[in-house]
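Much of our argument rests on the idea that a fold can be written as discrete symbols. Part of our work consisted of pairing the sequence of a single chain with a tokenised description of its backbone. We regard such an encoding as a compact summary of how the chain folds. The amino acid sequence and the backbone structure tokens for this protein are reproduced below.
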Amino acid sequence: MASLRLQEGAGARALEFAILTAARTGEVIGATWGEIDIEKKIWIIPAERMKAGREHRVPLSGAAMAVVHSMAAIRQGQQLFPGAKAGRPLSNMALLMALRRMKRADVTAHGFRSTFRDWCAERTAYPTEVAEMALAHAVGDKVEAAYRRGDLFEKRVRLMEDWAEFCGIVAPTVAGTNVFAIQTRA
């Protein structure tokens, strides 16, 4: 994260936002200002942009809000992460290119979602359902889904702040120290 934060450009900020929100690349690059509630610190992704076809509320940590504020300073139209062409979002390759510029061909943007899930399971006491809701995964079987009306939002607020703090802690301050593998390609 420390190396990523030194990178310039919308692609680097989009990757940072993707990591901090545990969101999919397509959700991030398609994000618009109309989906962000700055006051409430919530990103509401409409159902039509979600893989499962259900609206997803994402609590924005202080670190994620810092990314939003950095993008507000260079706002161009409705895209949170504007592409090179006016009025167009970033390319779906922008996050991969940010990693390549960092010489990190050994990791993928989607791999950070897996890292988030592993961190939840191995380093926290958050229930599985909270982690799965954060990833916008279906929780339980059809019967459980019929009875589960909430989205565990308040618990996810704490989870995402803890994740952002962890991301800040593991970031290298000196080359070669405190570096954790995210995902290695086979």
Remarks:
- The two ends are 23 Å apart (CA to CA).
- Confidence is low (pLDDT under 50) at residues 171-186.
